[in-house]
Every structure is written in C-alpha cells, then in structure tokens.
Amino acid sequence: MSRLNIVLGVGGGIAAYKSALLLRLFTEAGHDVTVIPTDASTKFVGVATWEALSGHPATNSVFDAVDTVNHVRLGHEADLIVVAPATADLLAKAAGGHANDLLTTTLLMARGPVLFAPAMHTEMWQHGATVANVATLRARGVHVMDPAVGRLTGPDSGPGRLPEPADIFAAATALFKQPEPALASESWGSETLGSEPATAEPAVQPAGETSGILAGKRVLITAGGTREPLDPVRFLGNKSSGKQGVALVEAALAAGADVTLIHAPMDVPAPAGAKLQPIETALELRAATLAAAATADVVIMAAAVADFRPANISTGKIKKRDNTDDPVITLVRNPDILLELVAHRAAQNQQQFIVGFAAETGDEQADARTYAQAKLQRKGCDLLVVNEVGPGDSGSERVFGQDTNQVEILALDGAEPVQTGGSKREVANAVVHLIAQRLGGR
C-alpha cells in the first residue's frame, strides 16, 4: 500500500488513549497522519501527545492556520478519515451534517473513505437516536464499525467498547486493498476429497468477483473457533483462524448483501461494513445465531463449533500438584446449531437458504467424502462446504490457519458436487456465486 494522507479524529471519551496506539500503527506503516482532537477529548489526552506522535500541529479550531484554509484543505487532501473514538455526539453531528469545528467541517469536505470506530455506553449505542444515526451514515457509504463487547467505564459490561487499535487499523487499511484475482476454474484433480477421481465433476461456474449478485439480501455468517472454558485461564478450543469466514463476509458485502457476522475468537480482524457480534462459547453462538437468523435470507455457518464442553467449569485455576491425582474432565455435548436452524426453518415455513461447513477426516471405516455426504443428509442444509483437514503432504496444516483452501460443495438436492480451490477469498466468491444461482432458481 502506498503512503496515505490520513486524518485521525479523536472524540471525547475515555477510550481516547487507545487512539494514540492507533496513531502509532498508522505512522509506523509509513502513513502521514494529522490528528484533529475534539475539545472534550483533550481532557483525556493532551494536544502535546498528538503533536509529538504525528509530527503535525493538532487543533480543532477553524481559526488556526487560516492561511491554509484548513477546514477545506484537510478533507480534500485526506485519502482516509478515521474517527476513534466516535462518541454518540460525534455520530449525531456527522449524521446531521453539523459544521461547528474543524473535525465536523473536515468530515463534510471528505472526498475519500470515512471510518467511524464508536465507543460509548451500551445504552447510548442501543438508543434509537444512535441506531438511526448509524443507519443514516452507512446509507451514505460511511463505514461504521460495531463497537466491541466487554467491560465499560464503571462496573457494567456490554457492547460499547472501542474496538482494539489493531482491529481499527486493519479495517482502515482494508479500504485500500487491491481486488482479489478472479477465481480460477480448475477442479482439484488428485486433491479431491476421498479416493474417487474428480475428472467427471464440474468446477465452479461462473467465476470471478461477486459485485451486486446478492443485493438486498440479508446474510448471516458465523466464523472463528468457539472456546469452552475449563477454568478462569484454560479452555477447550480448535485450530480455526476465522480466515474463511472473514473472506465470506467480504465476498457477501461485495455482492451487495446486508451482512451480520457472529464470530468466535479469530486470528484476523473482522472486515468493516458488517454488523458484528463477538461471542466465545458454543452456547453463546447458538443464542446469537438463532436470534439473528429470524430475519436472515441466507445463513452461512462457517464457524468451527465445539462438539463438546466441560460438564463443570472450575471457579479457580486447576492446580498441578504432586500429591493429587490428575484431573478428570467430563464432557457433555453441545447443541447442534445447524440442525436447529434447519428444523426452525421447516417449522416456520421459511424460504431461507442455509449453508453448512464441515471439516472432515477419513478413517479405517470410510473416507472424508462418505462422512460428509452422511452429515449433509443428517443436517438437511441446502449446501455443505467440505474441507478435508489434517496434515498435508509437506506436514503443515492443510486448511486451518492457511491463506488457501480447497473445498467440495455438496448439495442436498443431489446436484453434482462442485470443487474449487485457491485463496480463501476465491473460495468465498465461489460459495457466494453458487448461493446466488440457487436463490435465482427459487
């Protein structure tokens, strides 16, 4: 990415201190940053900090540097404007087109992308006025991240925390990523799941980017790997990085969909533009997914959900002592979320399209494809995207944590399996294309 001219607006919230870390990320990446702190924000972080870290004067007055016409120039010259923290007041001013200081006038003059990273108490974020202001901004093409969920100022917790600086940095720089290459049309060949040759099975068609093909559709995507706590410091987890789920979100957004991402912990940041709901455990994922699916046209279950959880969670750290026996951990089954979604669709007579993901391995009884076909019939989802996981030829992981993927997409209606491989974005494009084709057929 080339050097960018960035304006960093800082709102008047306690989270303003985190924006100093965000500023450092931008400058260390080689970008030129001008900070515009609101008057209230200087009660939390002083002007001297912003000037020292950015190398530029930091002011919110339209009467400073009048000879350069700052209130016009900064917005025109900025490749990107990031506001972090974006308070409820700043969101309201931006939605209403206010222009009573340098930051709000700069936002009105913006010619490049604008990204807001909100931070406020939960009640403020969920208030109807803020909800309406965010919807107004997003409708204008402004990028508004959802706040993180966790401990807020004071004893309360909930949605309203400023996203971590690294997540804001990733969301900002993602606005300048180059488009992914078009999807190749080759099939897997000898890499196909199971032992059967793939020569008779079709590759994904059509290939390429997904612009507009899901316009107006509400798409719910789950991603990441759930964590089941054993004690306050340990958990049962899996190797999912969340990369494929994030790629699906990006492809669905490019397709024009209204996207909600419910995500367990991931190794990659969530993309800007989707409604975000972070969770940890399988039970939390179940509750969030069943609630959000009620209004979704398409549900894509890409999260790696733990099949089991500890029957009991220790309130204290499980100690390793020489004079005690090794602990025995009893596991209980987690609910089958995909199965519940399909059953609920049938009960409500919904015209909802459901896509499942399956990480499979073969054993002495059957190969991965056989297990996947049986899972598809048992689950009853419309499509099942199947990975054969485990070590590859070189000994490295074949799927988890990698930037590439190879999948076979099975259809409940008996259509020929579809294979595709390449970058995880290419695989995501293929899945989105197939969903759009099926929805068109309906």
From TrEMBL:
GO cellular component annotations of the record: phosphopantothenoylcysteine decarboxylase complex
Reactions it catalyzes: (R)-4'-phosphopantothenate + L-cysteine + CTP = N-[(R)-4-phosphopantothenoyl]-L-cysteine + CMP + diphosphate + H(+); N-[(R)-4-phosphopantothenoyl]-L-cysteine + H(+) = (R)-4'-phosphopantetheine + CO2
EC number of this enzyme: 4.1.1.36, 6.3.2.5
Presence of the UniProt keyword Cell membrane in the record: no
Cofactor remark: Binds 1 FMN per subunit.
Region (Disordered) location: 181-208
MF-aspect GO terms: FMN binding; metal ion binding; phosphopantothenate--cysteine ligase activity; phosphopantothenoylcysteine decarboxylase activity
InterPro entries: CoaB-like_sf, CoaBC, DNA/pantothenate-metab_flavo_C, Flavin_trans-like, Flavoprotein
Cofactor(s) the protein requires to work: FMN; Mg(2+)
Keyword Calcium applies: no
Region annotation Phosphopantothenate--cysteine ligase: where it falls in the sequence: 219-442
Pathway field: Cofactor biosynthesis; coenzyme A biosynthesis; CoA from (R)-pantothenate: step 2/5; Cofactor biosynthesis; coenzyme A biosynthesis; CoA from (R)-pantothenate: step 3/5
GO biological process, any: coenzyme A biosynthetic process
Location of region: Phosphopantothenoylcysteine decarboxylase: 1-218
Flavoprotein domain boundaries: 5-169
Pfam families recorded: DFP, Flavoprotein
Keywords: Decarboxylase, Flavoprotein, FMN, Ligase, Lyase, Magnesium, Metal-binding, Multifunctional enzyme
PANTHER family per record: HOMO-OLIGOMERIC FLAVIN CONTAINING CYS DECARBOXYLASE FAMILY, PHOSPHOPANTOTHENOYLCYSTEINE DECARBOXYLASE
Function summary: Catalyzes two sequential steps in the biosynthesis of coenzyme A. In the first step cysteine is conjugated to 4'-phosphopantothenate to form 4-phosphopantothenoylcysteine. In the second step the latter compound is decarboxylated to form 4'-phosphopantotheine.
Family: In the N-terminal section; belongs to the HFCD (homo-oligomeric flavin containing Cys decarboxylase) superfamily. In the C-terminal section; belongs to the PPC synthetase family.
UniProt name for this protein: Coenzyme A biosynthesis bifunctional protein CoaBC
Species of the source: Arthrobacter glacialis
Gene name of this polypeptide: coaBC
